[in-house]
Design brief:
With about 400 residues, the chain is α+β, with helices and mostly antiparallel strands. Helices cover about 20% and strands about 35% of the residues. It has three domains: about 100 residues, no CATH class; about 130 residues, no CATH class; about 130 residues, Barstar-like (Barnase, Chain D, 2-Layer Sandwich). It contains ten helices and 21 strands. This is Barstar (Barnase inhibitor).
């Protein structure tokens, strides 16, 4: 019986098959994604607090802020608000965003200025500014804001003061999604040599290959080739390459299921926790089968019994539109693209009946989403977005 070749390396320039193999050491790693962030302690030095920050310090307002924005400025003895206008590129290029922030302490500033040193707890959003947060920018102070604005606007910020420096923010950190271990292709067709610049594709049992994207590219050189224990006439190939964004070990059962043909019935995702529902949506996206949108006039039925979180909604609407394991977006951008412009499986303007919608109404409520690190997308938000994109939505 032929050995199943599960993975295919496609030449990055030509798209031709470079090699096929049965498995890959270094693709699945013994970690769980998304990685939970490490909370840190920061100190705003010589801080002049205002608005909600001042209220958190004096106890007249909540200690928790949500997201906290810090933009650098050259003060020159002036307040930050006067030293850096709202459209200052330098401010934003040196900016940092802290997530899930709360005030945990304050005391008179050590420099005797009469200002305050204010302790915050939170974590830094991963971004490239300031060399990935490792080097403090060459500025003489920072202006501070919370986002979204206190009035609830997601497009505005609320200024909360300024400070002369920040302790605890700029330093090296472990990678949130570190590269995998060295790659060994197991049970390969022979012939791969030299330099490898390839995209990785997952191959279903029916031979359909699904490219996995930039995070799973294989760039390196062949360093060893030897007989494989997988089967006769196959070889194991060791590369000096690492997968930039490896898959989690708990991803493997999902990928094995899709390889075998995909979910065999609806709601198989319902027993998963939210992190694994997120992985389900990613696997559905990776294994999407492209086809023309179904004709206009079709009515879709969303089974809402298990829509208890944001990712569950995308599991459910993907199945409503495209059947078990189907994909109709995994975030608000792709929901809009698919609903408003098509190419997601349904002709825009479609009618959808959301059954048991009260489940989502009960669970998708205002708050702070500690997966997206943004204000939670509520049931009412989703209903509004779908309506604005032309979906004829009926709630039951």
């Amino acid at each position: 019986m032929p050995i199943p070749l599960r993975w295919r390396l496609l030449d990055a320039e030509t798209g031709a098959t470079a090699v096929e193999c049965t498995d890959i050491d270094g693709l699945f790693v013994d970690r769980k994604f998304p990685v939970e962030p490490a909370y840190e302690r920061y100190t705003l030095l010589s801080c002049a607090p205002a608005g909600p920050l001042l209220a958190a310090i004096d106890g007249t307002g909540p200690a928790w802020f949500g997201n906290f924005l810090i933009n650098g400025a050259h003060l020159g003895g002036r307040p930050v608000s006067e030293a850096c206008g709202p459209d200052c590129y330098e401010c934003y290029s040196t900016g940092e965003e802290l997530l899930d922030v709360r005030v945990v302490g304050q005391r008179p500033a050590a420099d005797g200025s009469g200002l305050l040193d204010v302790d915050l707890e939170g974590h830094r959003r991963v971004q490239d500014n300031n060399r990935g947060g490792t080097v403090a920018p060459a500025v003489s102070g920072y202006r501070l804001a919370v986002w979204p604005a206190v009035n609830g606007s997601e497009l505005e910020t609320t200024p909360v003061g300024e400070c002369r420096g920040i302790a605890g923010l700029f330093h090296e950190r472990p990678e949130i999604w570190p590269s995998g271990p060295p790659v060994t292709l197991l049970g390969c067709t022979p012939g791969l040599t030299g330099s490898v610049q390839a995209e990785l594709a997952h191959v279903r049992v029916d031979g359909t290959a699904h490219k996995m994207g930039w995070g799973s590219r294989v760039h390196g050189r062949v360093v060893a080739v030897g007989p494989s224990a997988v089967g006769d006439d196959l070889v194991d190939i060791t590369l000096d390459a690492r997968i930039p964004e490896p898959l989690a070990a708990n991803d493997r059962p999902l990928w094995d299921m899709w390889r075998a043909g995909g979910p065999t019935g609806p709601n198989l995702w319902a027993k998963l926790d939210r992190s694994d529902r997120y992985l389900w949506v990613r696997a559905a996206a990776a294994h999407r089968r492209y086809a023309p949108d179904k004709p206009a006039g079709r009515v879709y039925h969303l089974d809402g019994r298990h829509v208890t979180d944001f990712d569950a909604f995308f599991c459910a609407i993907g199945e409503a539109i495209n059947g078990p394991g189907g994909w109709f977006g995994g975030d608000l951008f792709w929901l809009h693209e698919n609903a408003a412009t098509g190419d997601g499986g349904a002709t825009p303007g479609f009618r959808m009946i959301w059954h048991e919608s009260e489940v989502a109404r009960t669970h998708l409520v205002p708050g702070f989403d500690r997966k997206s690190w943004l204000p939670a997308v509520t049931f009412d938000d989703l209903v509004r977005y779908l309506g604005e994109d032309g979906v004829q939505l009926e709630l039951r």
